Request: fold
Amino acid sequence: MTGDTYTYPGYDDFATFPNTGDVGIVVLDKRVRMETYGQLPTVGLVETLYKHETFEIVGYGQQDTQPVAVAEIQKIKAMVQLISLQSGYSAGFNLQLSSNAGKPHRGGLCFGDSGGPVLYGTTILAVNSFVINENCAGAGYSYRIDQPEILAWINSFL
Reply:
């Protein structure tokens, strides 16, 4: 399947970090029919959630990098917990999520997971963006899409 890709106009390759605008859209050439679709969040939804709330992340990245990178060909689903919205790396723009490597279905973000969704039920809260630990065992960060300007941009495609 093919389509056109669009990068959020505020994306600047992390020059204004932590407000990276790390969001994109793919408009497919053909309609895809599914039983369930992800829902967009309301503005500020993340602010109403509590620390240690559990989310599901989806990606296609590595599972570990020690002693060598172990790539995962199939889609990965893992449960993570919200740690902070206000750390130096999140600053309200990103979710700081735990990475509990070694526990079944409790992994975290890793290299190659960028662009995958962070789900709260069927609601898409954020887009996997970056990790700060080369072993995929530290915190992972996902760019929030519940910001008014991000939602307005996404809705312009619907």
About this structure: The chain has a mean pLDDT of 82. The beta strands are 3-7, 24-28, 54-59, 62-64, 70-71, 76-84, 94-97, 117-120, 123-131, 140-144. Residues 5 and 26 are 4 Å apart (CA to CA).
